[in-house]
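User: For a reading group we're discussing how well predicted structures match intuition. Take DUF6325 family protein. Before you show the prediction, I'll give you the sequence so everyone sees exactly what went in.
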Amino acid sequence: MSGADEVPGPVDVVVIELPEAAATDGAGRALHALLDAGTISLFDIAMVAKAGDGSVRRLDLSHPDHPGARSFAPFAGAQSDLFDDGDLAQAAGALEPGTVGLLVAFENTWVRPFVGAAHAAGGQVVASQRIPAEVLIEVLDLAEPVG
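Assistant: Thanks. Here is the predicted 3D structure of DUF6325 family protein, as structure tokens, for the group to look at:
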């Protein structure tokens, strides 16, 4: 890899819990818009359903029989099997019964030039961490107003 844009940025994984009967059309359109804009690159996507009794099944995005999965059917071709059964089980463990979980592995492509420039200077990404939105909202709500 020689060019600054050739150095990949960190890959993030998010697990989004949705109610079993959630209308996911808006989320599907938003993901498509991020890809079209070049904001992210999609590495993998998967969906699991956790039944009321705690049993878990992987939802097939290429032939979705679950209403929540239909919005993500256009992304079935992006599935790379990055998520194995262990990953799906771990994600399902975080879900409440009667919900579905959407797993998305993506790269924030905007960071490529920055990481590439650091790489060209002899640097490297040695750590990456994501602060969950809920934590940020909580911290900001507790912060005293400035001014």
